[in-house]
Design brief:
19 strands; alpha/beta; Metallo-beta-lactamase, Chain A; Rossmann fold; single chain; globular; seven-stranded mixed β-sheet
């Protein structure tokens, strides 16, 4: 890779230049922040290593200027500083830095940290894969019986959680078992049907001081996301209200729009389902994942087919590394379920192939389907993809499975 190292200490510059060069990288070093400001858009480095405490212009101001330059849109910026304060780390991220490394007396460790930050991956974990209602018993031992919940974890980025079905209790148990403290999380609700929100009160991090959690979802007319969650926890229905949350909890209404969460970008799209239901696309470090649950893909030979909506959906999910999507019904089950807001095997295969997604994950299984029925559904989708000559790989994740992007 091509590095631009900006540090007013010639000693540090010389040491890191030596170590990075020995690792096979190209390195340009500047001891003047103003000189670096002039040269960076011409050099277009893959990564900028940037000190904070410098004369002429400090690292925060320099980071902000770099992030305003279109020539550096793809450049990673890593702050390299002797300052250990949480404020500085937060501020660096707010100004667009991709990482923060504290200088130490072990330069080799700094190079290892740089490599880790540049190659860090997204861990996708499934905590619940069912739809409509939880399904305990012998028929759900392999795929699991909990309803919708998945998580995305990337090092020091906020934890991303999609939906709060009964699977969120397993996620909560996992976080507590690993002694997670001062958790920052974003819970993105697709829509407020019971199987997507009813286990939110059992997410223990909501009750722990020091945590910061934002709950994001689509409003419904004059019903806000906060109002919907609060109503579900009204003491008529549940003995604990949102007043009992000890974490800093925020609510956000989301429409079809984009937002930034740390260094992640989240885009949303209204889906074909009763009420307001959002699909989400997460983009981070060149990787993309789409979460499209509760979405009905009407076959083209039905009067309900909407080509304009399908085109819009295809653009939204195009070439995603992973598409997690509603595949509730086997093809033979769908005719009696048309208009219920969910999709069947062949239509899911067709849309995934048309959008050129790399991997397709089947999700939101009907509660009347046992593990063997889900196996048949997976086989149906794979056969449909093969018939189309598709390059899309298809999996059917089980509760507890994790994948690395």
């Amino acid at each position: 890779m091509r590095f631009l190292l900006i540090d007013d200490s010639e000693t540090i510059s010389d040491i890191l230049t030596f170590l990075l060069s020995n690792a096979g990288h190209e390195v340009e070093a500047r001891n003047s922040s103003l000189e670096a400001l002039k040269d960076a858009p011409l050099l277009r480095p893959d990564c900028i290593l940037l000190d904070l405490m410098m004369p002429e212009m400090d690292g925060f101001a320099l980071c902000k200027r770099f992030r305003e330059m279109p020539e550096l849109a793809q450049t990673k910026i890593i702050i390299l500083s002797g300052k250990t304060y949480e404020f500085d780390k937060r501020r660096a991220k707010q100004l667009g830095a991709d990482g923060y490394i504290v200088k130490s007396g072990e330069p080799e460790r700094i190079v290892d940290e740089v490599n880790r930050l540049l190659t860090r991956n997204i861990t996708l974990s499934y905590w619940g894969v069912r739809g409509t209602l939880p399904v305990p018993g012998q028929g759900s031992l392999r795929y699991g019986g909990n309803t919708s919940c998945i998580s995305l974890h990337v090092d020091d980025e906020p934890l991303i959680v999609f939906d709060a079905g009964s699977g969120i209790k397993l996620l909560s148990d996992h976080l507590m078992a690993h002694n997670s403290r001062r958790l920052t999380a974003k819970i993105l609700i697709s829509h407020p049907h019971w199987d997507h929100i009813n286990a939110l009160p059992f997410f223990v991090p909501l009750y722990l001081q020091g945590n910061e959690i934002e709950i994001i979802g689509p409003p419904h007319g004059d019903s806000t996301t906060r109002g919907i969650i609060s109503a579900q926890m009204d003491d008529v229905f549940f003995p604990v209200t949102i007043r009992e949350f000890s974490a800093r909890v925020f609510f956000r209404d989301m429409h079809e729009e984009s937002l930034s969460i740390g260094n992640m970008r989240i885009d949303s799209l209204l889906l074909s389902h009763p009420g307001n239901c959002l699909g989400y696309r997460m983009t981070y470090n060149g990787k993309s994942l789409c979460y499209i649950t509760d979405n009905e893909l009407f076959p083209r030979d039905t009067p309900f087919y909407n080509g304009e909506y399908e085109d819009k959906l295809v653009r939204f999910i195009r070439e995603a590394d992973i598409l997690i999507t509603d595949c509730t019904y086997l093809d033979e089950e769908y005719p009696s379920k048309i208009g219920w807001g969910h999709s069947c095997s062949s239509e899911v295969a067709r849309i995934a192939d048309r959008a050129g997604v790399k991997a397709l994950h089947l999700f939101h299984h009907d509660p009347d389907q046992n593990d063997d029925a889900i196996d048949r559904k997976l086989a149906q989708v794979r056969a449909a993809l093969e018939k189309l000559g598709s390059k899309t790989q298809c999996l059917c994740p089980a509760e507890g499975n994790s994948f690395v992007l």
